Amino acid sequence: MSAEYFVESAAGRTPQEAFEKAVREAQYRWGHEGYTGTIAEKYHLLDEKGKQCFIMFPTAPTEEKAFETADRHSENPELTKWGPVLCIPTLEKKQGETIYVFAGWASS
Fold it and tell me: Which domain covers residue 15, as residue numbers?
């Protein structure tokens, strides 16, 4: 099995809320069948209580800068297709909610 690198953004009141939105949106767009190479493959992190879903990074001034930061850290050894995702909050808002950028590796 191979893996694809993904970078997605979503807005939420908390990182967890934004992550859940991003996973649901990817499942809607790419399906629930697995091996999509998207954040949809991280659905297993939604229900694992007490397990770290994110590697939190410092806040980026913009969504664009957060995407750049995520790409620079794509080879982080903690980011595996079974592990947590990188989470970068931004100072930007969408309908009053913080925009978060998520990045990682997913089964494809």
Answer: 3-107
